[in-house]
Amino acid sequence: MTWEILTGLMTLCGSLIAIFKIVAKLNRTLTSLEDAVHNLNESVSAQSEKNRIFYEKIGDHETRLSLLEVSEGRKEIN
């Protein structure tokens, strides 16, 4: 085995190690990003449910105000 072949093999191994290191970091980052998106999706779903409840309460409030306005209008007429 000559020095040129040994140098070539060492360069090839070093390149492969560098590539695997980059792939491992990328995989870790993508996994972390996937978890963050999943948590964000759960938060948005929970907030949507809270918003629905608030909208129902606001709708009920508007109905009560309308009924009060109608009853106040009848009192003013009489």
Task: Tell me how many strands there are.
Answer: 0
Low-confidence stretches: none
Shape, per Cα inertia axes: rod-shaped
Structure annotation, total helices: 1
Q: What number is the mean pLDDT?
A: 88
Report the end-to-end length measured between terminal Cα atoms. Answer: 113 Å
Characterize the largest beta sheet: strand count, sense, and whether it forms a barrel: none
Estimate percent helicity. Answer: over 70%
Please identify the structural class as seen in this structure: mainly alpha
Written as H for each helix and E for each strand, in order along the chain, the element string is H
Gyration radius (Cα, Å) is: 34 Å
